[in-house]
Amino acid sequence: MYSNKTNNLISLAFDEYIDLEKKVIKNIKRHCYPICSSCSDICCNIYSCNEIFKSKWVKNIHVYSNNDFNSTKLKRTIKSHFKSKIQKDGCLFDFGRPPSCLLFFCNKIKHNMKSKFANYLLAHLGYLIPSLLEIRVGRKKITNIDLIKNDGINIDEIVLIRHHIKKAKMINSKINTYLNKSKDSRYKTIFKTFELIESHSELSIQGTIESL
Ligand code: SF4
Ligand code: SF4
Fold first, then answer.
1. DSSP states along 9-52
2. Alpha carbons 2 and 86: distance in angstroms, whole number
3. Domain count of the chain?
4. CA distance 102 to 123
5. β-strands 140-142, 135-137: how paired?
6. What φ, ψ does residue 105 adopt, rounded to 5°?
């Protein structure tokens, strides 16, 4: 169906997406884990985990990274390890999380952040991965979901997806720098982070602001 060149590019896009998501999750975890690990009312539930099966892209990430992946097997794993794994690590997945899980920060976590701006950046961090699932070119929406399903994906579209992943990677690293810096460098870093976010026009900040 696809040429070798296209297949190789799709594989690269998957690898880069997985690498990015791992990095984003690592940064998010730094701020959530201290709170989540002592939470007496864990918000995860098996229905939210099963959201994986609602996104073709996320599902394909699991197919790509795990040759013997199948829905029944994953559902069984989710069911059998659910409680123990969540209590130990906070989530069953290092990547390929349902977008809704990446977007959610409870009030306990928000209140623990050092400032309103830090909260804004954390929310934006959570939005980085889900925003990649809705990449647009002009009025045309190329959701990554179409990547596998649609035989018509062309090299330009894959190049664009990889370009967005690269930008998201830079934003992730800038936000992380700010969130871990002392007050002295605050304003300089804030300015640079804003500049980068604003230049990343497709990663709309609207939803992030609303979620504050
Ligand atoms: S996100 Fe909030 S409610 Fe959910 S497990 Fe963490 S601390 Fe608890
Ligand atoms: S954060 Fe992880 S364990 Fe919790 S509901 Fe989402 S996918 Fe499941």
1. HHHHHHHHHHHHHHHHHHHHHHHHHHHHTT-SS----HHHHGGG
2. 39
3. 1
4. 9
5. antiparallel
6. -130, 125
pLDDT by residue for the chain (212 residues), tens digit each? 666 777 788 888 889 999 999 999 999 999 998 888 888 888 888 888 888 887 777 887 888 888 667 778 777 877 777 766 666 667 878 899 988 889 899 999 999 998 888 888 899 899 888 877 765 555 555 554 445 444 556 677 778 778 888 889 988 998 888 888 755 455 555 555 555 555 554 444 333 333 32
- The residue ranges of DSSP E strands in the chain, in sequence order, are 135-137, 140-142
Ligand 1 mutation target, pool 25, 30, 38, 41, most atoms within 8 A of CB: 41
Q: Which atom of ligand 1 is nearest to the CA of 35?
A: 7
Buried/exposed 84-102: b ≥16 CB within 10 Å, e otherwise: ebbeeebbbbebbbbbebb
How many angstroms separate the CA atoms of 86 and 42, rounded? Answer: 9
Residue 22, domain extent: 4-211
pTM of the model: 0.80
28, 33, 40, 43, best to mutate for ligand 1 pocket (most atoms within 8 Å of CB):
43
142 beta partners: 135
